[in-house]
Amino acid sequence: MRKLSIFLVFFLVFTITINAQWTSLSSGLTAVDSNNLISVYFTDANTGYAVGKAGTILKTTNGGTNWAVLTSGITDELDAVYFTDANTGYAVGTVILKTTDGGANWTNVYTSPYQYAIRSICFVNATTGYVVGMGMMGGTILKTTDGGINWTNQTSGTNSQLSSVYFTDASTGYTVGTDGTILKTTNGGAT
User: Fold this and answer.
1) How do the domains of the chain map onto residue ranges?
2) Rounded to whole angstroms, how far apart are CA atoms 125 and 183?
3) What is the pTM of this model?
4) Where are the alpha helices (DSSP H) in the chain?
5) DSSP annotation string for 9-58
6) Per-residue pLDDT tens for 36-57?
7) What is the C-alpha to C-alpha distance for residues 102 and 127, in angstroms, rounded to an integer?
8) E strand or H helix at 90
9) DSSP H/E element including 144
């Protein structure tokens, strides 16, 4: 009986390991450096977006089986993508692009005056969002309260380059960056 139990455990572990593999999907892009992808975001199980070098934006509507190239209107690198609903999304790099029609059209709503790259974006609702970045202005945090029309600098208290931001609710957020930096806000970015 003990041998049967050991065999069943081995069989289950082996079966789970075999079935837990990643599946390679084709982006449809050629394998050149200008088509490196950097960030991905899905609005549901089937609809997703990927962004990367040379202003690349891709969209899938069938769970990643096929990807269509969208027109971003820029050639600069895009480092992150985020959607607040099925139609409204943002792609960020040295600019902040916004779409309100599921990616068919993208509008530049912000261009960095300091030559820094925005590395990450997170929205807490349809109108309030945050971006963090790196470059000449370390510790860059920008906030919008009007769906990306206007962006204001937030005081981060650090000169470290920030590379990712995430909010757990409207008040509590975290950002991380170089030099082991981890920052937390409990008042929506005011401090």
Assistant:
1) 24-185
2) 21
3) 0.85
4) 2-19
5) HHHHHHHHHHHT-------S--SSGGG-EEEEEESSSS-EEEEEGGG-EE
6) 999 999 999 999 999 999 999 9
7) 17
8) strand 89-93
9) strand 140-144
